[in-house]
């Protein structure tokens, strides 16, 4: 006998069967349409008032044979006087302040926003006024009116930038009043319908509320937790399953983040301790030439190490957050790797003797140059550093119909364990041989991994015969 299958309850069917007869979509649509239209009209009127004031102020700027004058009379526009200090304006000529309103003079050191826009164009932005009120600013780029006919014909003109700012408190009040009026009208109209809908939705959404309560009790910083279900609902189960996957992933990420934070602190702790020790010794023995003669160079070397760590961490963060903009272009891979070899010669003088590559002369790939440069630079640097001194590093490129593979092999004193192969791309992971080297921070291969993910490349590490390590980079075509 087959086990009895529990029928899942459906929130969708329940809501559709009980609410369809009482909901009036037309009323809601009309309310939203009218409300948005009126709000838009009111805002346009406010913006138009800014434009009118700006146009008036522009007419007051005169160009008398190259000499600029601003003929402003405060009695006609009292809102710009110090006594009111409610609205502000500022004029610029050649990026230098030409004139400010009296209302802005009482805020020394404060300038209105000035952004680069084309001539005879304007832009309206939200802006916090110098007096702390919320407002809007209108920036205009215009040509000063030339009084002399010969000056107008000369083709030389002076451009000005005008910014005026006004508070939006009155506008916001009007918008709120409009919204409240429409909202109250709609509420009164559909009050009876709303009452029925609320009761039906409250009953139908009980499983969602129950799920929400379980989510509130979760703590990803603690032991492994998942959301369990005693009352299965057809629409909720996929959400519950995906949430459990998300929770598990975030618990792992949290643990990784804790480890990464600890590793970063450890990496920075050593150079900081060295800086403190050097400074304490220099302060205690200020006249000892053995200390003072090398103090500045030691401080510089330690600071450069810290800068390298921070730069690599920033590059790792950019690559992991997709903050790098990809610019695909065709590259000759043979020439590209030859250039990389020349760049690394200062760091590895024997690179010409050790690096053996097998690349077709005319092999082309379409990639982001910066990303591929960073990836291959780190791979070559690691292969040459970790490889047995004097033994060759082999680089082979194979091109297939759907992909291009770049395989880099170097000899090791002993093969890596499976655990080391899995962790080799983790941030701040270092082999024992690199922990005593101040120039190795365990960030290179993690940057490579992040950039590969960003470019949809794949990278893997494998042990090869004769105690050799192979790093395989695959570029899709």
TrEMBL record:
Compartmental location: Cell membrane
Organism, scientific name: Pseudoalteromonas haloplanktis (Alteromonas haloplanktis)
Full protein name: histidine kinase
Keywords from the named record: ATP-binding, Cell membrane, Kinase, Membrane, Nucleotide-binding, Phosphoprotein, Transferase, Transmembrane, Transmembrane helix, Two-component regulatory system
GO function term, MF aspect, one: kinase activity
Primary residence: membrane
Catalysed reactions, semicolon-separated: ATP + protein L-histidine = ADP + protein N-phospho-L-histidine
InterPro entries: HATPase_C_sf, HATPase_dom, His_kinase_dom, HisK_dim/P_dom, HisK_dim/P_sf, HssS/ArlS-like
EC identifiers of the protein: 2.7.13.3
One Pfam family cited in the UniProt record for this chain: HATPase_c
Ranges of residues in domain Histidine kinase: 263-477
UniProt-listed CDD domains: HisKA (cd00082)
Membrane topology designation: Multi-pass membrane protein
Domain of life per record: Bacteria
PROSITE patterns reported in the protein's UniProt record: HIS_KIN
TM segment ranges: 15-34, 174-197
């Amino acid at each position: 006998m087959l086990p009895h299958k529990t029928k899942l309850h459906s929130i969708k069917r329940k809501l559709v069967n009980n609410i369809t007869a009482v909901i009036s979509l037309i009323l809601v649509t009309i309310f939203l349409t009218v409300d948005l239209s009126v709000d838009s009209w009111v805002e346009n009127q406010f913006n138009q008032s800014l434009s009118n004031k700006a146009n008036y102020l522009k007419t007051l700027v005169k160009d008398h044979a190259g000499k600029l004058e601003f003929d402003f009379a405060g009695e006609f526009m009292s809102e710009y006087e110090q006594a009111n200090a409610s609205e502000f304006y500022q004029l610029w000529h050649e990026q230098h302040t030409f004139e400010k309103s009296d209302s802005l003079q009482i805020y020394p050191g404060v300038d209105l926003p000035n952004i680069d826009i084309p001539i005879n164009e304007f832009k309206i932005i939200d802006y916090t006024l110098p007096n702390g009120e919320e407002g809007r600013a209108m920036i205009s780029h215009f040509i000063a009116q030339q009084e002399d006919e010969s000056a107008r014909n000369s083709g030389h003109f002076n451009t000005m930038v005008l910014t005026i700012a006004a508070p939006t408190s009155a506008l916001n009040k009007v918008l709120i009043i409009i919204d409240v009026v429409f909202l109250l009208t709609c509420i009164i109209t559909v009050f009876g319908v709303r009452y029925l809908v609320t009761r039906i939705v409250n009953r139908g959404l009980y499983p969602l509320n129950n799920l929400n309560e379980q989510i509130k009790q979760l703590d990803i910083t603690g032991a492994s937790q998942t959301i369990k279900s005693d009352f299965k609902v057809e629409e909720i189960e996929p959400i519950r399953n995906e949430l459990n996957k998300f929770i598990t992933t975030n618990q792992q990420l949290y643990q990784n983040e804790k480890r990464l934070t600890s590793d970063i602190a450890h990496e920075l702790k050593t150079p900081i301790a060295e800086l403190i020790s050097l400074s304490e010794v220099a302060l205690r023995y200020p006249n000892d030439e053995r200390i003072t003669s090398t103090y500045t160079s030691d401080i510089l070397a330690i600071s450069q190490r810290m800068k390298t760590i921070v730069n690599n961490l920033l590059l790792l963060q950019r690559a992991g957050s997709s903050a790098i903009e990809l610019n695909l272009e065709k590259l000759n891979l043979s020439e590209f790797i030859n250039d990389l070899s020349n760049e690394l010669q200062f760091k590895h003088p024997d690179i010409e003797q050790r690096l053996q590559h097998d690349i077709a002369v005319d092999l082309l790939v379409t990639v982001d140059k910066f990303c591929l440069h960073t990836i291959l630079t780190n791979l070559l640097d690691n292969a040459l550093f970790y490889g047995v001194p004097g033994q060759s590093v082999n680089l082979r490129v194979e091109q297939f119909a759907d992909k291009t593979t770049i395989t880099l092999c170097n000899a090791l004193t002993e093969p890596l364990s499976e655990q080391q192969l899995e962790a080799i791309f983790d941030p701040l992971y270092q082999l024992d041989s690199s922990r005593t080297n101040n120039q190795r921070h365990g960030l290179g291969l993690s940057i490579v991994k992040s950039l590969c993910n960003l470019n949809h490349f794949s990278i893997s590490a494998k042990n090869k015969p004769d105690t050799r390590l192979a790093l395989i980079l695959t570029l899709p075509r």
